[in-house]
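Retry 2 of 3 after timeout on previous attempt. Resubmitting structure tokens to design endpoint.
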């Protein structure tokens, strides 16, 4: 019965509304690669995630800059903006989508992707033809569920025990490469995604922590008065 409910829920994805529960979460990403020269490279970062019906807001967790550096950066930005014409792209050559909050909205069957610069009070719209340039694959499902539902359905249930009530492991292995997902069936979100090879040359891990309470302070509802810009404004 649980498998049937999961399949039905996944079939609802891609319509005008999303069936999964609202969610506030913190997501930790880790990756490790061992090169042919024996060098191990590791990276890790975290993001916050707000998921509501037809909206996904994610923001990179950044180290706080010292107060004097932050003040100087704001002063420099203000000075550059005051001397520039509105369409002058030189003002925004520092645009970096990785460090800006990302808002994805599903409107009918159309995706709207935008980044929000809270310091400059700007919303930058990214058209579908430029999704690749900001490392977005164009998949609402991957943004909303953090993995492709078809990929989840292709993974058999695992005998591996879960310590989380209502969450079950799924996994598969092929040619020495494995994938494992701890799927929360009630919230419809992966709590853990792991992939790698048995030789140990690469390993990736996503770990999601669900926040105990839902925020009523939704950032995409607080953009009144923000300037609207296009991604093309930042191109040379």
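Retry 2 succeeded. Sequence:
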């Amino acid at each position: 019965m649980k498998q049937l409910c999961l399949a039905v829920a996944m079939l609802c994805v891609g319509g005008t509304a999303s069936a999964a529960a609202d969610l506030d979460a913190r997501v930790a990403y880790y990756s490790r690669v061992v090169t042919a020269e024996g060098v191990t490279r590791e990276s890790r970062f975290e993001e916050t995630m707000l998921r509501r019906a037809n909206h996904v807001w994610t923001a990179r967790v950044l180290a706080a800059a010292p107060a004097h550096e932050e003040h100087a950066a704001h002063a420099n930005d203000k000075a550059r903006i005051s001397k520039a014409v509105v369409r002058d792209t030189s003002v925004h050559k520092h645009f970096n989508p990785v460090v800006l909050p990302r808002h994805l909205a599903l409107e009918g069957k159309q995706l709207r992707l935008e980044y929000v610069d809270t310091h400059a009070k700007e919303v930058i719209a990214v058209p579908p033809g430029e999704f690749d340039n900001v490392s977005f694959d164009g998949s609402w499902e991957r943004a909303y569920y953090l993995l492709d539902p078809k990929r989840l359905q292709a993974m058999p249930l695992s005998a591996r025990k879960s310590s989380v009530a209502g969450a079950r492991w799924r996994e598969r292995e092929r040619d020495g490469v494995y994938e494992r997902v701890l799927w929360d069936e009630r919230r419809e979100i992966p709590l853990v995604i792991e992939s790698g090879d048995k030789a140990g040359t690469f390993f990736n891990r996503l770990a999601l922590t669900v926040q105990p309470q839902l925020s009523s302070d939704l950032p995409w509802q607080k953009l009144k008065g923000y300037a609207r810009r296009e991604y093309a404004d930042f191109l040379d």
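Attempt log closed. The radius of gyration is 20 Å.
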